[in-house]
Amino acid sequence: MLIALILSAVFAWVVILALVVAVLALARQVGVLHMRVAPAGALTTSGGPSVGASSPAIPAKTLDGATVSVGGPAPGSALRLLMFVSAACPLCKNLIPMAKSFARDERVQLIFVGDDAPNVQRDMIEKQGLAGYQFINGPDVGMAYEVGKLPYAVLLDADGVVLSKGLVNSREHLESLVIAHEMGVNSVQDYIDGLKPALT
Q: What is the count of structural domains for the chain?
């Protein structure tokens, strides 16, 4: 009876050790797969101020008629995320709640930019709960950043330097803007392209 108990205890320990080895091997494989599967990132475009360049300070008006400066240095401010949206863009409507949550979690100042008719903008602000956010209305900012498609985002630092930018349509895309800045690369795609020779 005692021998059977000892054998069962030894067998149990052998099984546990085998499971530990299997889990470690599996964790390594997951890491390899994670490196091989490129994360989705915001699609960067060539127009407008490039990543690493100073953004121009563009005089603009909010929907309430107040004169503000978009871009350029803003000493003491947090990171600023310019979100270019339109009431006619279904993706924009889906992305706005994600952008609000993202800005809150990342402590980023969120500024919306659009150029629809004022009554259309006001309707969108009411429906999307944007009353507490700065909303720039007019084409000047979009033209300065050469925004061709929506939704589009530009991440600026307190000095007005463009940290990252691109077309976004998910929270993952928004997060890739901050990740690219933290990694010191122009975009997540640039980072992945740099990894490809090592992975092949």
A: 2
End-to-end CA distance of the chain: 57
What distance in Å separates the CA atoms of residue 42 and residue 169, rounded to the nearest whole number? 8
- Whether 97 and 139 share a structural domain: yes
105 and 162 share one domain: yes
Write the DSSP symbol of residue 184.
T
For residue 130, give the nearest of 95, 165, 91 by alpha carbon: 95
Short-list 70, 94, 43, 92, CA closest to 142: 70
Alpha helices in 37-166, H assignment, sequence order: 90-106, 118-128, 140-144
Model confidence over 13-47: pLDDT tens digits?
A: 999 999 999 999 898 888 766 555 444 556 666 67
User: Is residue 53 domain-resident?
Assistant: no
Tokens of 161: 């330097």
